[in-house]
Design a protein that fits this description.
Helix content is 36%, strand content 21%. It is α/β, with parallel strands linked by helices and 480 residues long. The chain folds into 2 domains: 10-151, NAD(P)-binding Rossmann-like Domain (Rossmann fold), CATH 3.40.50; 184-466, Dihydrodipicolinate Reductase, domain 2 (2-Layer Sandwich). Strands 7, 8, 9, 10, 11, 12, 13, 14, 15 and 16 form a 10-stranded mixed sheet that branches. The longest helix is centred in the middle third of the chain and has 26 residues, at 228-253.
Length: 480
């Protein structure tokens, strides 16, 4: 892998710099870029937040965050050099006067030069439009090459997403807006398209006429206590399915464009996401809540927030409309494991042969990143038994130039490459689909099942796959 190195001076501003996203993801990603010598000699990084703080206090906060979260070996000299370029600004998100002061501070640090300026909105969706409007107002002062990075959640439903789209697009052209879902920065997720482009056999097989069903599982063995104020408002469907898992599905099932350009990729992803159909109403989903959820501080005793969801859906496109797709995800489950199982159909003459199982393509995303192809063959000798013949290969990044997802995506922004980001059209399509599911679940016609902590989730999930004569595939974790 030969990742990009930034050559030109730049300004990087982080709005919400005192929050968890900045501490857990953005500051460590910047250190990783510095440690791999990907930053130029000249650059300025600003933290912008409402919390009063000195430059010195901000730098200490960054140092603590990097040492706690960076994936690379710690080099104090490199960290000190990075921090030397970092400054803090305390201001309001909705006050034009704060932005005038901020613009003056930027120009002071850049010696009046108007450099490429990346702004990362690590803030709640309700202040996206306030920040974008004020940034657009000072853009003539600080430089026209102002790129806006916005991380999910993009609103809380279709209507709020459309409102964000309306206001942000009034001030920024689409090529300057980078809508970030960190799942799209993961090696294994990016490998889906790489594998399809590089292997005609694999891409030919990813055809709805040949597939029995698709299953996407994303289980977590951790609580959401550290972000309960957010999670209790949104629940597992908005948190995981609306963006992360539907994006993975689109990469797997979209038509492969001839040219691997961002515009072509987004066009094909949108074609899938706008064709998603939820059938069966209350019988098409299972939701649950782990037993200790209401014991978390800040959760109301009457909370209906699901921590587990399994849904059955379809894609209304010619090759896919009869292929059931099952998605399940939950918190406080038995293990942390994210994987996709594509189960292929048998030949018509094999249908009654129970000795032969369906072939499968399995893509693991976490904790390991691997691809498996499961075939079957007869055992030797006089035995008539069939046994699985599985080929496995790691698709994780190895070497000194590997980066976590936020580091990779930041490099894409510097290159103005939108391939691994979203478009507002995709976001609105997924919200349109998700809103239908949420209306069904919130009608209370769907029972909220309690499940034990560190279990497999509610047993009622099995009914979803049994409707079509299938069952969930539990992929075992590889022993270290």
């Amino acid at each position: 892998m030969n990742l990009y190195r930034i050559e030109k001076p730049f300004v990087f501003s982080i709005f919400g710099a005192s929050g968890d996203l900045a501490k857990v993801k953005i500051f460590p990603a910047l250190y990783d870029l510095a440690a791999q010598r990907r930053l130029p000699k000249e650059y300025v990084i600003f933290g912008y937040s409402r919390t009063p703080m000195s430059d010195e206090a901000f730098r200490k906060m960054v140092e603590k965050s990097v040492k706690g979260k960076s994936t690379l070996p710690m080099n104090q000299k490199i960290l000190d050099e990075l921090i030397r370029h970092m400054f803090y600004f305390s201001g309001q998100y909705d006050k034009p006067g704060s932005y005038n002061e901020f613009a003056s501070k930027i120009l002071l640090k850049t010696k009046g030069r108007k450099l490429t300026h990346l702004t990362y909105l690590a803030v709640p969706p309700q202040v996206f439009t306030k920040i974008s409007k004020n940034l657009a107002r000072i853009r003539p002062k600080i430089g026209e090459d102002l790129r806006l990075i916005i991380e999910k959640p993009f609103g809380h439903d279709e209507a709020s997403a459309r409102e964000i789209f309306h206001h942000v697009s009034m001030d920024f052209s689409s090529d300057k807006i980078f809508l970030l879902d960190h799942y799209l920065g993961k090696d294994a997720v990016q490998s889906i398209l790489v594998l399809r482009y590089a292997n005609s056999i694999l891409n030919t097989l990813l055809n709805g006429n040949l597939i029995s069903n698709i299953q996407i599982t994303a289980s977590e063995d951790l609580s959401v206590a550290n972000r309960i104020s957010y999670f209790d408002q949104v629940g597992i469907i908005k948190d995981m399915i609306q963006s992360h898992l539907l994006q993975m599905l689109s990469l797997l099932t979209m038509e492969l464009p001839v040219e691997q350009k961002s515009e072509s990729i987004h066009r094909e992803k949108f074609a899938v996401l706008s064709a998603l159909k939820y059938r069966g109403y209350e019988k098409g989903m299972v939701i649950g809540q782990h037993e200790s959820y209401k014991n978390i501080e800040g959760v109301k005793k009457a909370s209906w927030t699901p921590t587990f969801a399994a849904i059955r859906l379809f894609i209304d496109r010619q090759d896919w409309y009869k292929v059931p797709i099952y998605i399940r995800t939950g918190k406080m489950l038995k293990k942390k494991h994210t994987y996709v199982v594509v189960e292929f159909k048998k030949h018509a003459f094999q249908e009654k042969n129970n000795l032969i199982q369906n072939n499968k393509l399995i893509i693991e995303l976490q904790p390991d990143q691997k691809i498996h192809v499961k075939l079957y063959t007869k055992t030797g000798g006089a035995s008539s038994e069939y046994t699985d013949l599985t080929t496995s290969k790691s698709i994780a990044c190895f070497g000194d130039d590997c980066l976590p997802e936020h580091g990779r995506l930041l490099l894409d922004v510097f290159q103005s490459d939108q391939s691994n980001f979203l478009t507002f059209e995709e976001i609105i399509a997924t919200w349109k689909f998700t809103d239908k599911i949420l209306r069904c679940s919130e009608s209370k016609k769907v029972k909220l099942h309690l499940y034990e902590d560190y279990s497999d989730g509610p047993s009622q999930q099995d009914a979803l796959t049994k409707r079509d004569g299938h069952h969930w595939h539990d992929v075992p974790l590889q022993k270290k």
